[in-house]
Amino acid sequence: MRLFIGGACAGKRDLVANRFPAATWWRAGEGAFPDGWRSRLAPGQCLVITGWLDGLTAALVDEPDDDRLRARLVAELEAMVEAERREQGEVVLILAEVGRGIVPLDPAERRLRDLAGWLGQDAAARADEVWYVRHGLARCLSFS
Length: 144
Known about the structure:
Blueprint: E1 2-6, H1 12-19, E2 24-27, E3 46-50, H2 52-62, H3 66-85, E4 90-96, H4 107-126, E5 129-134, E6 137-143
Parallel strand pairs: 1-4, 1-5, 2-3, 3-4
Antiparallel strand pairs: 5-6
Helix pairs in contact: 2-4, 3-4
């Protein structure tokens, strides 16, 4: 699994599109979150998953317990790693980094940022490669 993370409009999508031109793309915010990727992953193919903030926003409404939601997300990340291990395809995650700005006053917005931060940490811990993207430039932070 590869992870590309950076702020809004940092160039993540363009960079991934150039590196994986034949990839299938799925927006996590388009229903079946967080497990909708399963039906789109195909052997020998690359699946790019983006739209995590939209998916998290919707999931926060349905799940009041942050620990339970985080556990569900970790289970999906583990399933992605396992699917790659079984050669069912390659997964590329694009995550927005939202923790470097002003802390919002609204509790729901703070909760979203907390969960996005945990998701980034959990994804980075499982990824073979972690790329930080800023101003269209990518730096590899981790390579296994």
